[in-house]
Amino acid sequence: MIYRQGNINDLPGLKNLALKSWGQYQKELTPENWQKLKANLNDDKTFRDLLEKSFCLVCVNETEEIIGMCFLVPSGNPTEIYDSSWCYIRFVTVSLDFSGQGIGRKLTEKCIEYAIETGEHIIALHTSEMMHKARYLYESLGFTILKEIEPRLGKKFWLYTRSLT
Question: pTM of this prediction?
Fold first, then answer.
């Protein structure tokens, strides 16, 4: 497996990975909420926006298929969830075929390392009640729940942060 910076040429592979991997949550969502999530994951704009403003990291297998991805958005890009002084991680995603091999951990660790190298002070992310493995992973890497945020897709979500100093 190779980890490398993602770019606009990876757009089809990023979307494909997202749709396949996040499909595991279809049964946990109402049909209406699944369609909302699916539309977001299938929208080029979602990934183009992230590729333009963030550090994208991908993991590829021997055939160059993208089997893992994440995005680190630098501070200065606030949202309704994230403070402008924080950097934050989005879309840590691993192919179900490669689950349990440490790819999600490695992607998250590399985001933390990159954030430290670029002088960030606080790193944040959000995750939901249906993402049990992700919550365990983030907590094992030192992230702590800052607060519960507005439900999304009918599910509970939490905002996690970690100091980098």
Answer: 0.92
CA distance 150 to 162: 20
What is the reported pLDDT for 129? Answer: 85
Summarised one tens digit per residue, pLDDT across range 97-156 is: 999 999 999 999 999 999 999 999 999 999 998 888 888 999 999 999 999 898 888 889
Q: Sheet holding 66-73: strands in order across?
A: 2-5, 55-60, 66-73, 87-94, 122-128, 155-163, 144-152
Rounded CA gap, 78 and 159, in Å?
14
The answer to whether 127 and 158 have CB atoms below 8 angstroms apart is yes
pLDDT of residue 154: 84
Of 160, 67, 72, which Cα lies nearest the Cα of 115? Answer: 72
Cα–Cα dist 151/165, whole Å? 30
Q: Which domains does the chain have, with CATH numbers?
A: 2-163 (3.40.630.30)
Q: Would you call 149 helix, strand, or coil by DSSP? A: strand
**DSSP3 helix / strand / coil % (the chain, rounded to 5):** 40, 30, 25
What is the DSSP code (8-state) at residue 7? Answer: -
